[in-house]
Amino acid sequence: MGFIRSEALGETGYVVLDDHTTSIDPAEWRDLEYVGWRSSGITRFAPLTSYAGDVDCNGFWNHTPPRTDKDGVWVASQVAVAPTLQRCAQEPGAGVGRCRVIELQPNEYADAIYNLHQDDNNRLNEEGTGWVVRGFFNLSDDADSMLILRSDRFDPATEIRLPLRAGSRIIVDTQRFWHAVWHRGTAPRYALITSWTSGPELDAYIAANHGDPHPRTVDLDPEFVDAAQVEMHRRIEERRRAFEAQGIVMEPPVDMSV
Description:
22% of the residues lie in helices and 25% in strands. It has one domain: B-lactam Antibiotic, Isopenicillin N Synthase, Chain (Jelly Rolls, Sandwich). It has helices at residues 27-30, 76-81, 83-90, 109-114, 200-208, 222-245; strands spanning 14-17, 35-36, 43-47, 49-50, 73-74, 96-104, 132-138, 142-150, 159-164, 169-172, 178-182, 189-197. It has six helices and twelve strands. The strands form three sheets. Strands 1-10-7-12-6-3-2 form a seven-stranded antiparallel sheet, with helices on one face. Strands 9-8-11 form a three-stranded antiparallel sheet.
């Protein structure tokens, strides 16, 4: 039967929308309640939705009864602080699963590619229903930072680099891509990350905001990329040996948010 998927993401697996140009008070993300959570870098998260409306970042499948990344319950204390962010998440009219603000500390390119991961948004998702994808709305102005996507974790030739200026909006099938953010700033990066259910509502939203599957991307010096690849493999091997010494077999990292 398959899943209902967004036609707009069919060709490349991602689109860049028109920038969000309406001003939002930074207090809407700075004054939220944040919790520590594993991710692709040094991060904290402020959940706007969760499994049951608590300040909780856990996957919905880790609760009882378990469910897929759909039907998030709004956290009343958080949306009271961030009503505009809530409206942004609801704007497509598509189903909202997990929705949270991420706070990411500055990192290096080698850190980002070492932390490349695929999400697991569709665990427990039933065929015949909408495929879950993720929207990334950059809140802080991080024009020199970039979202890195790779269809092959270890092949830099498959790498796509999308800039993260304030107001940039990107929708990605994050189970299709390995992804992470290289944050080149000196202050934390803040972004709203929303799990949306694919369907006609999301397609209409993408069309209305001129979703571009072939946006301008960032070029890097090939020698710089090659050096980071060497460092990535060194770190992976170092981690493998450390786990092996403890009798632990490593699995690829999943269900981590940028």
